[in-house]
Amino acid sequence: MTRTVLSGAVIALLAAVLAVTGSALGITTLWPVLLAAAVGIAGGRLTVGRVAAFVVGAVASFVAMAVSAGMLPAVPAAEAVVVVVGVLVLTAIAAVTGERVPLWAGLVGYAVLAAYYEPAFAARPTAFLAEAPVALVTVLLAAALGAAAATLVDLLTTRGATVPADELAEPKAV
Q1: Residue 167 domain-assigned?
Q2: What is the pTM of this model?
Q3: Which domain holds residue 79?
Q4: Interacting residues of 66 by C-beta distance below 8 A, sequence separation 6+
Q5: Would residue 170 count as lying in a domain?
Q6: Is residue 113 part of a domain?
Q7: How many domains does the chain have?
Q8: Which of 31, 62, 78, 79 lies 20 to 30 Å from 159, alpha-carbon distance?
Q9: Radius of gyration of the chain (CA)
């Protein structure tokens, strides 16, 4: 219960600070920060694998939109192919790493960038090269802040405690 209350307090404080100052960092919406914090606090201690999966998912989403913008016609079937390939890449990475880079965190990263940038992309696909890199950096910055909040919670709740090595690893998929 202490970890839950502390997690909520740290994330709420971060959200309040970013609501006031986030525009200076280019963070105009808080939900990427909140989703990244959720990835960070889900299932216990934050792991490098979850962070890596989130980043790989966001980059996969960026690449998918780049392929859509530059190589494919603007039709639903092309979008479906790009999404399927992106999800299969994330699935392969998760499988090869034995879920140390978990699929669910990769899908969250993919979805965060897609949801954040998709409206602008749909309105101006020809502006992809100018706008998408900024969107990717903004999402990754927001994610870094969310992961930092989760790390702070880890530090505050495990202070002086030793954690067995098997608890640091991501759980294996069944």
Answers
A1: no
A2: 0.77
A3: 2-21+28-160
A4: 128, 132
A5: no
A6: yes
A7: 1
A8: 31
A9: 17
